[in-house]
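Researcher: Sequence of Peptidase, M48 family follows. Predict its structure.
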Amino acid sequence: MIRFLPLLLMIAGAIVYGRFLAWRTAKELDSKSVELVDPELRLVLGRLAQALDLPRIKVHLYEVPMINGLASHDGRIFLTRGFYDRFRSGKVTAEEIASVVAHELGHVALGHSRRRMIDFTGQNAVRMGLALVLSRVLGGLGVWVAQALVGLLMAGLSRRDEYEADSYATALLIKAGIGAGPQKSLFRKLGALAGSGTGQAPAWLLTHPKTEERIAAIEANEARWIRPAPDAPA
Ligand SMILES: [Zn+2]
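Model: Prediction complete. Tokens:
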């Protein structure tokens, strides 16, 4: 039993640390955000709400310059000031903003944002435990191997989440009568911004899979959902 004490202490430490990070993130979001009030966006978000049979969809404006959309662990949707500014200056349309909100709604509806906090806590515990075990065999290399293994696992999980959230958004946008066009055009715009060499690659892209692959996946869903194959069973 005593052999496992260091491991148990590490796991307990990882859980406490994970909780602390989640708490700190929530506090940061609370202190730097207000409800987003914009008549044009309210109109398009109203269409999403109607498709979901909800009275309205509340979006928070997060006061940071980067271009990003996020869903917090408690299910709130945030749009960054940087993203909103692109909309105000006409670089991004209201429908494209709606596609970001639809994607984040997908993360909430599919339980990703809640699970991420648990993943994050678990991830630390697994990495530390694995490092401890592996370092007995591999020495100093054990930490690196543990890091790489957990990193791969997490990347795979988050990639899957992104595709699921994209599918959810496509379905919602189609149902709302907006269509998946804005979802795809936004990806292309953000991709162009990232490639403009201004050193301000949208944060949204860094945490998400490759643009072309996402567009291809959206188009595959569109083909299935909008134009059923002629030989599809009635
Ligand atoms: Zn996402």
